[in-house]
Structure formats: C-alpha cells, structure tokens
Known about the structure:
23% strand; alpha/beta; 5 helices
Amino acid sequence: xxxxxxxxxxxxxxxxxxxxxxxxxxxxxxxxxxxxxxxxxxxxxxxxxxxxxxxxxxxxxxxxxxxxxxxxxxxxxxxxxxxxxxxxxxxxxxxxxxxxxxxxxxxxxxxxxxxxxxxxxxxxxxxxxxxxxxxxxxxxxxxxxxxxxxxxxxxxxxxxxxxxxxxxxxxxxxxxxxxxxxxxx
Length: 185
C-alpha cells in the first residue's frame, strides 16, 4: 500500500513526464487511425453529444501515468485529483487522447482488455465528463480499442489488474512526483 504522505490514496505514479504537443482539435475518436471505437461505445458517444465535436485547439500538455493501488470507482480514482470541484483540470480533448495513444503507446496497459483511463470533455462546451478507456486488443493485430462510461458509473475496478490513469502532471501532489523521482533514480 502506498504511503498517504505523498497525497495519493488509490494510485501511484509510474511514468516519467510525457509530452503531448499542441493540437488542432481536428482529430477525434471518429476520424483517427490509431484507436478503434466499437458500436456500443459509438452509440453512447453520439447520445452524449460527442459525435461531431467542434475543433478546439489545445496547448501542449505534460502528463503522467498512474497505476491503481486500491479497488476504486471513477469518483474515487479521480477524486484525489480534485474531482468534481476541479473537474475541468482533469479533462483532455479527444485529439489529445488519440495523440497520447499514438506517441506513448507503450504506456497503454500491455495486457489485452485491461483499461488505461482518461477523463474527456465534450468539445461542444457543455460539461458532461466521461471516462474513456483505451485498451489493447488482440496482440496479433496490435490494435487499440476505446470504451466510454459516465463518470457516475458505479463499478469498482480491482487494483489487482493494475489499471492505469492518465492525468495532467500539474494535478498530482508535488510529494507524489518527488517520491516517484526518488524511486526511479
């Protein structure tokens, strides 16, 4: 179990600083060649208003990958980073999430079907955060799949699978980053 003194209860930092460049906002879950969207999740995205996002350019962002250390639901996982009061600080755009999968594929969980979670926002401007999971499919095809769930989804995910979360670096407590640097050295 992770020490509470680093400010994290349900996760631990496992990556170095990962960079995503500024994006145009043009790349979406629908028009990319990196991550596939299944029919069920495609319908959810349409109903929730994510089908034709307005392109919104984003600046560069530095991210960290964390690993679950305690069984948690989404509110517990992301709550230690300020959800729901700082919800917008956790959001990444569709373009940023696809870019992460393209540039940092090695940080998507290596086991087929095990989730790497992101919080995304609706690029239409209204707040309906969803958790996006990117996961590896059949290793024979080296494919990545995408699933979506509402933030309020009550499922508790087991820590034994070591699911991952990707969040902007600046939402992570300084002590957790310092502890990671010491362990990695």
